[in-house]
Amino acid sequence: MLAMLLSGCAAASTIAASADSSAPAVVLSAYKHLAQWQDPANPVITVAPDGVRQPYLADGAHRFGRAALSWAFASGECGEEVWGELPGAQIAAANVAAFAQAGIGYVISTGGQGQMFTCASDEGMERFIARYDSPALLGIDFDIEEGQSVAQIDSLVQRALLAQQRRPALRFSFTVATHAASDGSNHSLNELGETVLKAVRQHGLRNYTFNLMVMDYGPASRKVCVVRKGRCDMGRSALQAAQNVQRKYGLPLNQIELTPMLGMNDVVENVFTLADMRLLARAVAQQKLAGLHFWSLDRDTPCKTPVKGADALCSGVSGVPAGAYLRAMGAGATLAAGARR
Q1: Mind listing the pLDDT tens digit for each residue in 7-38?
Q2: CB 142 within 8 A of CB 107
Q3: pTM value > 0.85
């Protein structure tokens, strides 16, 4: 059923950058938690929108449109990374060629909540990137949420710098937590995010983006979000977060991406609606942001029964059909393509 629902999903996965050659290409993607619905014996990326397991790609068919997909999450040391319990080589062998053949762009996302990705050597970084390399590889995403020391972050950025010299077209993104203060303070990045930005600038990395996790702000307060009708307005708060980072740290909007958690967040009163997604999709075009993503593809379907908290396999929002968030994001890609011409 979802294949039919998503057949109208527009949009190429990347959009050419503006005249500023330092601006990365725009990327729009859903995150896919590879461990969900995975068969360890044959770890082809798999979804189950109706409770029935099916490959994300089947015989080259684009059942989810042509938007890119962010594979989440590789962890451990670069070159020896694992995806959950599976080695990177097994994941790459099962998926890279299929995505390249289908012409579907993908981003390799590392780290994530409760996990770390580290890289102590240039050789390890080269093995890591080469494993997933193909014409469809759009970039490497470092999701840095907890645990990394300043030295580990510094080493990761240095490895990315040399990798970028070898592969100038490869895009590097740093996914970090953010607030979205609307009280005039511009409060946004936390100490960890500031550490990452300092390292990136210190080493002169180019063609990078900061991907803001615009989710889980907590109870409504102008200190952390844009408040509307006693709740955090998730769409406007996401745009506020981008503006805060631009103002406070001087990072251009064309180097800032947004990643909301669709539907009910872990903080249950923070609910990202379909209207919020449409707002952000338009903003990618109008404000020329670097990208829009969401967590996660497996959640872009209604829950079969009511839920009291965030569910890994459904949005928790009633009345929103399967694939609606992905379609809304895809419509934004069409707008963004026109804006960038």
Answers
A1: 334 344 554 443 333 567 899 999 999 999 99
A2: no
A3: yes
